[in-house]
Amino acid sequence: MYKLELRPTEQFIADLFAPYRNSGKVLYVDIWGVWCGPCRQEMPYSVELHEKLQGRPVEFVYLCTSSDKGDFDREIGKLGIADTGKNIWLNEDESRILRHYFGVSGTPHYWIIGENGDFVSESATDPSDPKTYETLRKLTEK
User: Fold this and answer.
1) Highest-confidence range of 1-10, 76-85, 114-123, by mean pLDDT?
2) Model-level pTM?
3) Which residues touch 35 (CB under 8 Å, ≥6 apart)?
4) What is the model's pLDDT at position 123?
5) What's the rounded Cα separation, in Å, for the pair 70 and 58?
């Protein structure tokens, strides 16, 4: 994942994950939309999951797709995710490219990416599912 070779129009995808290259961190990626009810329902669980994993080498990356930038800026605070990870707003073109490139058909959608940059799960479970915590805990044990 960290080592993607992409066409110039897709380079932003590699740029999203470049800060984590060789970081030794596991990524929990949450693809969501401001307008998405199920996405919003899972956010308190994401905050809780983040708290349970404090001190472990895991980074939460929230990719907001197909949403108004102003709504995104307001909602990340209301949802409690402003300080739990990296919040990234994708414009409509970037959202479309991301969905097409990775075959993401809907939101919410979650990925777990191992510290080596490879997908552990291209369709991870919701943050409310105990299996998600167990997977991230095991991946971050040293």
Assistant:
1) 76-85
2) 0.89
3) 66, 67, 71
4) 64
5) 28
